[in-house]
Structure formats: structure tokens, C-alpha cells
Amino acid sequence: MKLKKCLKVMISFILSCILISVNCITGISYYELPYRHNIDKEIHIDEYDNVKFRGIYYNIYSKDSVCAFYPFANGDTLKMPDEIEFKGKKYKVNNVFFDSIEEYSHTLPSKFTVPYKTIYLPKYTAFFDINDKVKLPNLRKIYIPKNIDDLHCLSDMPKLKVIIDKKNPYIKMKNGAVYSKNGKILYNLINSKKTYKIAKGTKSIFFGKNNTVKKVILPSSVKKLEIGAFRRCFKLKTVKLNKELKVIEGWAFEKCKSFKKITIPENVKKIDGCAFKGCKELSKVTLKSEVKTPKIINDAFKNTKDGIQFVVKNQTVADKLKEQLQNNKSGVKNAKILIGKKVVYQNING
User: Fold this and answer.
1) H or E segment at 310?
2) Beta 141-144 vs 161-164: how paired, if at all?
3) What is the DSSP letter of 41?
4) pTM
5) What pLDDT is attached to residue 195?
6) Which residue segments constitute the domains of the chain, with CATH numbers given?
7) Which of 99, 72, 203 has the alpha carbon at shortest distance from 153?
């Protein structure tokens, strides 16, 4: 009896192992489908879903949109096809999206790691994006074709070399950042450094999420900090604002968690809503103006340091600032206003 029980247990164990192995193999076969291509071209066929053709899965959402899911290849280099073939016709690949949400598998994890060191995007690509849950820790080189005008998805990758086609009329690499071809717009910082000096002639800035840069120096050409300019730069401590700056737009420094102090130049006329929201360590704001204060819009300083200090030049500015902080629901809590080192108002919105 004992022997029969042992045999039953062993058989059950072996069968379980076989079933687990089969499930693992099945999962892996679908697990190898990490990114998709959209082909915006009219296709005169009925709608298909999850169609497998020559080893590649296709989704046809409508008569003018195709998604093709390509399997991973072994090796360090990923070179995607410039065209795909479906139902005997070829279509140019002009959209690439690295996605962690794969509809062919229930075993795919919520986060996905792409292993390649070098990636060549298809030469017709006009749009390229990466899902937030997809990681590329080994990527060291990527080739960007001439039709792409945006690389926000590659922010904060200090070791990455970006090679942009010389015929690309939209963007260029300069000092580790993606700039517009004319150099007036900084789209995002890729090769992050602890201190970054923005190029002369730059007018608009979009740094994007960053976990490296600690100090930024603005050129005199910047008159306005755009919406979200330094949003979620978590280690940013200092930004040297230029005296020509006139406007700090909404969410410009939102969630810059390491930000401790800022000096506002005298020509700044407006600090827009949520500009410094979530800067939990921001404890000191110095206003350089001797006659007026910037217009402070709702929640501009929400969730900053409790007891935040505003240092001003004189009593005239102190009075105007007090009115701004109280009447505009600026978001401050227990704020103090100082002239030099002397506290003239305290517990504002306490």
C-alpha cells in the first residue's frame, strides 16, 4: 500500500512538472512580443484581430491602421524591418511603440526589460514612443531616421549615444540634449550630467523627468519657462534663473523634490498655477524686485515646505507679497516674509 501511494505521488509530481514546463514554454513564446508598429495606410480588407502571418502577429483595427507584433531576436542588436508584408502586400513601418501590454499573453509581467545594446529604427519611422513600464538598461546606441521630430521617450539615459540622420530637418543632438534644428527649443535632456548649462539661443525648455541633474544654468535668451519645463526632475537642487526671465508657467518645477531654494529675478511678472507644487523641500524664495511682486496664481507653492520663507527687499514688496499669498490661495502653509533677516509677517495661511 505504501509503495502504491509513493508511486501515485511520484506520477502526480512528474505530471505537474510536465504541465508547468508546457505552460512556461507557451508563456515564453508569447513573451517574445514586446513592441508594435502602426502602419497608417489604407488597407482594403475586413477587420482582423490576432492574425498570425509568417511568424508575426497582426491586428487590423480598421481599414487604415495595422499593428504588427515582432518577436525578440537573439543578440545585442535590434534592426527592425523597414516594411512589413501582409496578405501579399508590403506596407512601410512609420510608427514604433515599445509596449509592455501584450494582448496575446496572460503571463506577460507588468514591467518589461528590452535587452539590446543597439537599436536601428525603421527608416520610414515618423513616431517613436516607449511605454513607461518598458526599460532599456543595456541600450548604448540608437539610430534615429530622418522623419522623427520628437524623442521625449529617451530622457535621462547618460550612457546612450543617439545618432540622428543628417537629413532629419527637425531635431539634432547638442551637448547631450535633443534640440530643434534651429537650436531654439530644448526638447529633452538625454545624456544627463549633475550640472547642465543650456545652450545660448535656447528659448523654450522641456527637460522631462530626470533623476540625475542637480543644477541647471539658463541662458539670457529664455524669457519664459514653459509648462512642465523641469517637472519631475527629482534631484534638481538649483536653477540659476536669468534676469531676462518674465514668466514661470504652470508645473514648471512640479515635484522637484530636492529643490530647497530659488531666487526670482526682478523682471518676473507671473508665477503660474502649480509652478512649484510638490517641491517638498523648498524652504526659501528670494524676490529681487524692489517695487513689485510677481502675480502668484493658485497653488503655485502648494505642498512646499511648511514655514517656507520669502525674502524681499523692502516693506512695500512685503505688503504686496502678503496680499498675494493670502488672496490667491498660493498653497503656502505657515509662510514667513522677511526683509533681509528680519521677519515682518509670519504664519501666513497657517
Assistant:
1) strand 309-312
2) parallel
3) S
4) 0.80
5) 95
6) 31-148 (3.80.10), 223-350 (no CATH)
7) 99
